[in-house]
């Protein structure tokens, strides 16, 4: 073998192994024609789906989600709600009993597949609840596309859980998770989880959706309306075009989205305004006394998009719609369904900020929500608190924007029902445990990282994360890769402790000895999650002096933090329970000393964190 050949061979295998781990994502292109029977809450649908397999794997089957099949007596969703009793989803039960069990036949949700073809040839399929498995006639080779066509009909469920009809706010149809949707395929295989009430996941897709419905209806959707001049509500000069059944056809498009969702009502009002250097915002809701805060919310929504664009990364779509759907808030691409009625401006804006924030954490950074719900809900909650703190500054000043969430976490931990955040979203034993693991643990994950690496570094991490992963499917590993690179720290330990376990942080001051020219403090790690320790004193002349005790596992320390300048002390090895800190101040110079004056550390026991010197 000559040397040149050896080099070529090495390069070739080098390339192969590099390709083996390369990131890829699947793509879908939907065209759907929908004919709605508004009187009977049903519709007929035709779908053409061009599916592109960018994976290195040959696919012999594909899976679709048929979410509305969950809204039937005896469905997995019904079984789950029944077996969870009072720990389950309150919106699907009355007095702890599943309301799905008593849905009359004609009001059950359904997605009935008439036929599906691949490149014109009929395919075999089997349906188990909300998941359809389709056997392909010809496998989809790597880097190739295939065309599926399908005809189906559907019944909009009476049961309101995100999708449904005639909800309590009086919206006729909330049409979400409403079409047979191809499942995501990635390095982890097909994401074929059953719909029992929580999260969704899908490949990025382009949409062309034509909805034919009674001309008196107004539609709100996450997408671009291509013919506002032919339908009701969007254009004052519209000339409503109808067919012989008195139906108008709404033509919607959207690009690079996980989903297309819409709602229809005869009494919707449509309002719009433009965020300077941002998207066009649509409000689609029933105007009444109960929805009076929508008008007032507009400048806050504008500010929200501007802050997100500046701090995280640009919103990439042309518009965003806030649609009164009537069942809580649920985020979709380019829009959200939300409760319209609100008892305060703060409450309404809070919901808008949360659901709008999912445009980044769920839609643009499209995590697999069923596997890592803490990234999607947690990161969104982080920005909620961060932005609401600016939009509605608290009356009594808080040490940081996250103190309320940290306090709730502390209170929850004491209940003893916590489950790890890394657990599958739908499989938590207890609904409250799910909420805390996902929303609070996920949010505090970022708050703790800010404490460990400094807020300026965390801001850079978020921007870099957006730059690398916008319109892709990142995992926690991808996030940590960037966090470690920017902070120059080893942070893997923190992900494992915080996300995969229910271990807690608990540091305390064990003893303080005052000498003539200095003071010695014995700090104690009584918890099960090791952390670096920020320690501060308030001097008698009202100055704050900060010290940081880096954790040996990070192999470095923060160099800046908006919460102050820190004098760096010797490492604290994670195996060591006590640490002696000596500071060049005597008793007469100190009025208080304690751990983490910024109050970001999620220490579960604050009683021994502060000493006031009398
Ligand atoms: Zn959310």
TrEMBL record:
One of its GO terms (molecular function) is aminopeptidase activity. InterPro entries: Peptidase_M1_dom, Peptidase_M4/M1_CTD_sf. SUPFAM superfamilies: Metalloproteases ('zincins'), catalytic domain. One of its GO terms (biological process) is proteolysis. Pfam families: Peptidase_M1. Residues 1-22 form the signal peptide. The keyword Protease applies. Residues 348-498 form the Peptidase M1 membrane alanine aminopeptidase domain. Keywords: Aminopeptidase, Hydrolase, Protease, Signal. This is Aminopeptidase.
């Amino acid at each position: 073998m000559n040397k040149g050949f050896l080099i070529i061979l090495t390069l070739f295998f080098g390339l192969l192994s590099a390709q083996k781990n390369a990131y890829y994502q699947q793509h879908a292109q939907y065209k759907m024609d929908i004919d709605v029977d508004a009187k009977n809450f049903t519709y007929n649908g035709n779908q053409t789906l061009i599916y592109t397999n960018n994976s290195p794997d040959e696919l012999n089957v594909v899976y679709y989600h048929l979410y509305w099949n969950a809204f039937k007596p005896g469905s997995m969703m019904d079984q789950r709600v029944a077996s969870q009793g009072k720990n389950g989803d309150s919106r699907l039960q009355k007095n702890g009993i599943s309301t799905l069990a008593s849905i009359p036949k004609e009001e059950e949700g359904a997605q009935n597949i008439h036929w599906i073809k691949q490149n014109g040839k009929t395919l075999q399929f089997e349906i188990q609840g909300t998941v359809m498995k389709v056997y392909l006639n010809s496998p989809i080779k790597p880097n190739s596309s295939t065309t599926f066509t399908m005809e189906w009909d559907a019944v909009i469920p009476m049961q309101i859980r995100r999708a449904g009809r005639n909800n309590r706010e009086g919206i006729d149809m909330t049409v979400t998770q409403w079409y047979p949707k191809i499942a995501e395929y990635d390095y982890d295989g097909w994401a074929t989880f059953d719909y029992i009430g929580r999260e969704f996941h899908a490949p990025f897709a382009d949409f062309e959706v034509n909805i034919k419905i009674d001309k008196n209806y107004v539609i709100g959707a996450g997408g671009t309306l291509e013919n506002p001049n032919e339908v009701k509500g969007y254009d004052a000069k519209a000339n409503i075009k109808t067919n012989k059944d008195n139906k108008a056809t709404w033509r919607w498009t959207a690009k690079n989205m996980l989903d297309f969702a819409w709602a229809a009502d005869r009494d919707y009002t449509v309002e719009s305004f433009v965020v300077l250097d941002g998207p066009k915002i649509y409000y689609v809701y029933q105007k009444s006394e109960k929805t009076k805060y929508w008008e007032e919310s507009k400048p806050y929504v504008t500010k929200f998009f501007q802050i997100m664009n500046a701090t995280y990364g640009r919103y990439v779509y042309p518009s965003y719609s806030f649609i009164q759907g009537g069942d809580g808030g649920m985020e979709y691409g380019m829009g959200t369904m939300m409760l319209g009625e609100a008892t305060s401006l703060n409450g309404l804006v809070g919901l808008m900020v949360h659901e709008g924030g999912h445009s980044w954490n769920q839609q643009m950074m499209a995590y697999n929500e069923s596997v890592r719900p803490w990234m999607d809900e947690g990161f969104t909650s982080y920005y909620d608190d961060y932005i609401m703190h600016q939009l509605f500054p608290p009356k009594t000043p808080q040490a940081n924007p996250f103190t309320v969430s940290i306090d709730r976490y502390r209170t929850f931990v004491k209940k003893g029902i916590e489950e790890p955040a890394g657990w599958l979203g739908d499989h938590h034993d207890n609904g409250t445990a799910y909420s805390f693991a996902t929303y609070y643990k996920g949010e505090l994950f970022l708050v703790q990282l800010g404490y460990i690496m400094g807020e300026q570094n965390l801001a850079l991490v978020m921007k870099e994360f957006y730059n690398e992963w916008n319109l892709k499917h990142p995992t926690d590993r991808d996030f940590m890769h960037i966090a470690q690179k920017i902070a120059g720290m080893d942070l893997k330990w923190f992900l494992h402790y915080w996300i995969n376990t229910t271990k807690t942080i608990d540091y305390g001051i064990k003893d303080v000895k005052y000498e003539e020219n200095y003071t010695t403090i014995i700090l104690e790690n009584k918890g099960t999650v090791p952390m670096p320790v920020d320690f501060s004193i308030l001097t008698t002349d009202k100055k704050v002096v900060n010290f940081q005790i880096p954790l040996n596992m990070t192999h470095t320390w923060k160099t800046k933090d908006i919460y102050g300048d820190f004098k760096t002390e010797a490492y604290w090895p994670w195996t060591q329970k006590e640490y002696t800190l000596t500071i060049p101040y005597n008793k007469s110079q100190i009025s208080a000393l304690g751990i983490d004056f910024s109050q970001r550390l999620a220490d579960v026991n604050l009683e021994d964190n502060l000493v006031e010197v009398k």
